[in-house]
Amino acid sequence: MFNFKKLTMFLLLFSPLVSAQEEVSFVEYEAVTEFTKELAAECKRALQSNSRMERCDEFHQYLDDRYEPLSNAFMDHFQREGAEVFSGVDAVRMETHKRTQERLTRDIYYITERLR
Residues 90-116, buried b or exposed e (16+ Cβ, 10 A)? Predict the structure, then answer.
């Protein structure tokens, strides 16, 4: 069975960095958020077990190089277009994305506190 979400995450990983003027779709933002959450969870597990700290290096690099620029570009797009950027996104998908963002935020907080 074709998995659109995995394909989207793969393409986001290997696509060029986003420019400030580029309009980022919700699908792109959703996929990069999900992938960043997975990297954060791996880093958190590494911190908890005191192993494989390169997982945290990968997380921080992706956060800085990919997630933050794409997230900022999506927020700029939202500022210009309003709720239209969520066109076609149902309530269940939006709630799932919200939970993903919340988990990512908690993990970033945990990682930041552990690395102080």
Answer: eeeeeeebeebbebbeebbeebeeeee
> pLDDT tens digits for the chain (116 residues)?
444 455 445 555 545 555 545 689 999 999 999 999 999 999 999 999 988 788 999 999 999 999 999 999 999 999 999 999 999 999 999 999 999 999 999 999 999 999 88
Q: Cβ contacts of residue 13 below 8 Å, gap of 6+?
A: 35, 66
